[in-house]
Amino acid sequence: MINSYKDLIVWQRSMELVTEIYKITELFPKSELYGIVSQMRRAAISIPSNIAEGRKRSTRKDFRQFLIIAYASASEFETQIEISKRLNFTEIEKYEKVDILLLEVIKMLNKMISSLKS
Fold this sequence. Notes:
The protein is mainly α. The chain has one domain: 23S rRNA-intervening sequence (de novo design (two linked rop proteins), Up-down Bundle). It has four helices and no strands. It is elongated, with a radius of gyration of 15 Å.
């Protein structure tokens, strides 16, 4: 039984994602601190934040809307990861865990959004 947003696997995995991106972005060039580092961290943080906020809303419709926002943030974050890979900000192997977590989160959000349609 789900008592809290913290019980949601998607929230737990998205929190892991935030932790991992903070570790990776520490390795980025310092000149990117106020550029892509800041953008990536905000987009990553937005995912579990919107899941949590939506879960605390009073209706399924509201929860679904916040899951859609989290999904959009995940897509934004995915694009930023691709940009940082193309710019070779750190070794490609460093992204492995982030890529796996992000794919998992996106799939879970997609499934949850679909299941809340009815």
